[in-house]
Specification:
Layout: H1 2-24, E1 27-39, E2 44-46, E3 53-61, H2 62-70, E4 76-79, E5 87-90, H3 91-99, E6 106-111, E7 114-117, E8 119-130, E9 153-159, H4 160-163, E10 168-170
Parallel strand pairs: 1-4, 8-10
Antiparallel strand pairs: 1-3, 2-8, 3-6, 5-7, 8-9
């Protein structure tokens, strides 16, 4: 009886390994969302909205795609420290080098493929924290005093064109 169980279990394990080997040698297409990691210098500020991630369609053998999917630290690192003027960055052109993908993997599409970056001077300013809280107590209860915000103001920094539009920080 114990001999039969051992044969069944080893046959099942062999069948699973054989099935994985055959299926991972086929060609597949997957879509992966890759977060953007943007590096700026201390004097740079970005005035335009940038996407948080880039969607990439990749085609390759199952073994290669399995490595891509299991990669935990997959980020698209973009170094903008050498840029001084507004620019359009072609991500689709450089995504293969930035992600250091295997040569067996083919990139089909990148969305967005071009990112427009607008730089502005960096500034800091103090803004008030405004209490927009509306408390309605249950019957039989009352509010004693007015709610106080602590701290009453905060220092923010960023692009002049963005910071200039901010009048207060709501709670």
């Amino acid at each position: 009886m114990k001999k039969n169980i051992f044969i069944y279990i080893s046959s099942l394990i062999f069948a699973i390994i054989l099935w994985m080997y055959i299926n991972l040698n086929l060609v597949y297409t997957i879509s992966v969302s890759i977060p953007l990691d943007i590096k700026l210098s201390k004097v740079q500020a970005i005035a335009s909205d940038l996407p948080n991630s880039v969607d990439v369609s990749i085609k390759g053998k199952g073994w290669d795609l399995l490595g891509v999917m299991l990669s935990k630290n997959m980020k698209l690192n973009i170094d903008l420290t050498n840029y001084k003027k507004d620019t359009k960055l072609n991500i689709a052109q450089s995504v293969n080098e930035l992600l250091s993908l295997s040569s067996n993997v083919l990139i089909l599409s990148v969305n967005p493929d071009v990112v427009e970056i607008n730089f502005d001077n960096i500034t800091s300013k103090m803004i008030k924290v405004k209490n927009l809280l509306n408390v309605v107590p249950k019957d039989g209860y009352i509010i004693i005093g007015t709610p106080k915000v602590n701290p009453d103001s905060v220092k923010i920094s960023g692009a002049i064109s963005v910071i200039g539009k901010i009048k207060f920080l709501p709670t």
